[in-house]
Amino acid sequence: MNSTALVGCTGLVILSALQAIPQKPTINAIARRDIPSVTSNTKPIIEPSSTHWPDKLRTLATTPDVFISALGTTRAQAGSFEAQRAIDYHLNLALAKAAKDSGVRTYVLISSAAVSVNSRFPYSKMKAELEDAVKELGFPHTVIIKPGLLVGSRQDLRLAEAVLQTVAKGLAAISKSWLTEWWAQDTGVIGRAAVAAALQCSEGKREKGVWSVGQADIIQLGRQ
Q1: Is the pTM here over 0.85, yes or no?
Q2: HSE value, Cβ hemisphere, 13 Å, CA-based, for 203
């Protein structure tokens, strides 16, 4: 892996991935605002208007081998589900298309567990639709990371997530994580799993095609 592009850089998952990538590749980190923690080989690409992000990706001096997206927002932050979909689905798909047009060979999407196009829940249905759309783009390697609840510290944490995180952390403390890992994963583990999966693809250790990385695989990859 010589060069990587990342989006969703202010999220815990991508920050963890930034710290997990070996220091050899150039890391192009596209973000709306300054990235609070970066490695020495990271090149922040700060663009306040996310509509310009696909063009920023297309015009990188060197085509990245890998593109990783943990881009997403909440309905509360966006103001409506339609506004959330504009980011979580439409912008994500536009970036995936830009990556494909640029010649990226390995695409990694941080998605979610238990999503379905037949779901009654708009968020779950949207996530599943995005997964299907990026699979159809035909990257040599498409990696879908499907974690459960993300356990970590976030400024935009919703009440329900905060309660579940408290439960997960409490169970992990008394069980060395075995009571929680099947439904809640640490963001650092998820970030490292995304990087490990990308490295396996770029190093030719995985067959071409779609690789759906579930929660058990996330734990295994994230602890290597």
Answers
A1: no
A2: 7
